[in-house]
Amino acid sequence: MSNRSIEFFDEQFKRQVQAHEFALNPFEEAALPCEHQLEDRRASRR
């Protein structure tokens, strides 16, 4: 079964890697604080 969303982002990531475009987009930048909080919680459970 095909998933168009996954295909779209897969192709986008491939293009970015080939073009050496490694900067985060605004949505990824906004998500970073949340990711750090999740990682801190995971580390405190170990």
Mind explaining what this structure looks like?
With 46 residues, the chain is mainly α. The protein starts with a helix and ends with a helix. It has helices spanning 4-18, 26-44. The protein has a domain at 15-46. The chain is elongated. The mean pLDDT is 87. 74% of the residues lie in helices and 0% in strands. The chain has two helices and no strands.
Concise account of the structure shown:
The protein is mainly alpha-helical and 46 residues long. It is 74% helix and 0% strand. The protein contains two helices and no strands.
List keywords for this structure.
mainly alpha; single chain; 46 residues; 2 helices; 74% helix
Multimeric state of these chains? single chain
As a percent range, the share of helical residues equals: over 70%
As residue ranges, the low-confidence spans are none
**Main beta-sheet strand count, sense and barrel state:** none
Q: Mean of the pLDDT scores?
A: 87
What radius of gyration results from the CA coordinates? 15 Å
The total strand number stands at: 0
Helix and strand element order: HH
Strand portion: under 5%
- Give the termini distance in whole angstroms: 37 Å
Shape: elongated
Q: Which structural class do you get from the secondary structure elements? A: mainly alpha
Number of helices, where a helix is a run of at least 4 consecutive DSSP H or I residues: 2
